[in-house]
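Listing S7. Sequence submitted for prediction.
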Amino acid sequence: MTLHHQTFDTVIIGAGQAGPGLASALDGRGEKVALFEQRAFGGTCLNDGCRPTKAMRASARVAHLARTSAKLGVHTGEVTVSLAEVVARKDELIDAWRDGGSDYYENHATISYVLSTARLAGRDGDLFRIEHDGGSMTAKRVIVNSGARSVPPPVPGLDSIDWLDHHRILELTDTPEHLVVLGGSYIGLEFGQMFARFGSKVTIVERADRIIGREDADISEAIAAMLRREGLDVREGVDVESIEATETGARISLAGGDNLDASHVLVAAGRIPNSDDLGLETVGVDTDERGYIATDEHFATNVDGVYAVGDVNGRGAFTHTSYQDGTILADHLAGGDLSVAGRIPTYGLFIDPPLGRVGMTLTQAQDAGLDVEVAITPGDGVTKAVLDGETEGLWKLVVDKTTDRVLGASFFGLYGDEAVQAVSVLMHVDAPASALATFLPIHPTSTEFLPTFYGGLKKAGSAE
């Protein structure tokens, strides 16, 4: 099918988590739709984000359980990990999902799926002009779903080494001898723990005073302590002054005079939106100072007919937020009343055990001047965790006493990523926090702890 000079109702740039669903929804309404993807179907999540990392995390978790199984009366010999086999399993899963999705759209009877770059190139009357590798087309509507990418920090000498980002580290088939991770946030912690469990010596270097600084200090400290107990070297409040290549990898010079000799260096210190090569300026689409496309509660930009969904709009950098963006926009374009305005931040940090998060931290609630009550318990306060012998963790529930509403929760511990979603549902439907005291949970589960947990609420002191 030739696309040159064709006119479409909607052109979607990016086949990540929002784009394909939107394409199918609009096609189902009779629109003529073109879906562009310049790299690989499924975006970051499917190809080098959520799914491949969680496939490898599963292997790392099994290795850890095997090594620590004696406490449950299960004895093994030496536990070794074949990274090549771990990666092969990951690739088999991801390839099947990606191929299934791309085959569906490549062979779609009415949606035009195009592997190509695409960018806005001004207007053709009332239509938007889009340039791509095969020529150009016009469209009544353009939806941008271009995602975000890793950006390296300005460290002298970094370009002298063959550093890894979260894409390339997934391709390693030999376990690094010493992996140094630059950045103690979500990506860095997940990969750091994973590779430590694969058998690498791991050092995490975070320039801020503590890792995952958007969380409450006690949560950050609990996670750092857990990682250190597993053998990771977690260094907080440390700047990297320079890096130089060596015969065996890299030498990293830290502020204060310490040096780290690494076989591999993972840069996990930030991402920027893929908005700089979309031709947005040719039609006047506004971006903020960081490059994120400015949108309203229905993902409309300042230019009528141009929308932005997913990571590129700065309203969330998660698969679930991107997917929901697509759902909301599809509803809006059909005349519905869904909006992003009431969305409550919800996410997970998939170390093991995980951190499930929703809403405000205690610090944020107190800074907002709210009448706050808080319940806090260590992981060994959860019966399910004790039964399974996995008691690392710290659970935290934050409630507004005046309104009887949950403000937020931080559940670091076994199945914390699942239990927190019961709280999330209460928050999203604006139900009273006291409902936690009377609902009937299943025994024995981590979520079962919620009624007891709610009963332990007390007036909050210092967030620190």
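Caption to Listing S7: primary sequence and predicted structure tokens for the chain studied. The chain has a mean pLDDT of 94. Residues 87 and 445 are 32 Å apart (CA to CA).
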